[in-house]
Amino acid sequence: EGEGSMSIQYNAVKKDLPPEQLHRLFRAVGWSDGSETEDMKSKFSLPFIGSTLVVSAWEGERLVGAVRVLSDGIFHSVIYDLLVDPAYQGNGIGRELVRRCLDRYPDAEWSLQTTEDVAGFYEKLGLQRAKGVFLYRPSKYF
């Protein structure tokens, strides 16, 4: 599939993304090894449904990208789970998903946790490395 053959549609209204398609995306990007039970797979859309904002990218009926945001709508917004199907990467889909998030709450402070090899992607979109200490308590799920 060449770049010109893709017709990507974006949706910033639908939060209840198909759990089987989300699971496929998580597996495709290496965030899931496929060992989840059927019950766990059926719940892949719940974190998205519970988020403030979800932006998804579609080619026809196929979910090819998604991102979710938790935000108070004014001061603080956090990006979670930016996913783009590897077969569709390099076509600006991730950049467009993040841009649509930033545009929704343009005056908020934005933050996210990522890896060193991905940080440059976000820096190109105007985010900068934070100073200070990052603290967390691990989830029982990972």
Kindly describe this structure:
With 142 residues, the chain is of the alpha+beta class. The chain has helices at 19-28, 38-42, 46-49, 93-104, 116-124; strands at residues 8-11, 53-59, 62-71, 76-84, 109-111. The chain has a five-stranded mixed sheet with strand order 1-2-3-4-5. The longest helix has 12 residues, at 93-104.
Oligomer: single chain
Morphology: globular
Main sheet properties: 5 strands, mixed
How many helices in DSSP terms?
5
N- to C-terminal separation? 35 Å
Structural class by secondary-structure content? alpha+beta
* Strands, total number: 5
Q: Keywords, please?
A:
142 residues, alpha+beta, 5 helices
In short:
This protein has five helices and five strands. The chain has helices at residues 19-28, 38-42, 46-49, 93-104, 116-124; strands spanning 8-11, 53-59, 62-71, 76-84, 109-111.
Write the layout of secondary structure elements.
Blueprint: E1 8-11, H1 19-28, H2 38-42, H3 46-49, E2 53-59, E3 62-71, E4 76-84, H4 93-104, E5 109-111, H5 116-124
Parallel strand pairs: 4-5
Antiparallel strand pairs: 1-2, 2-3, 3-4
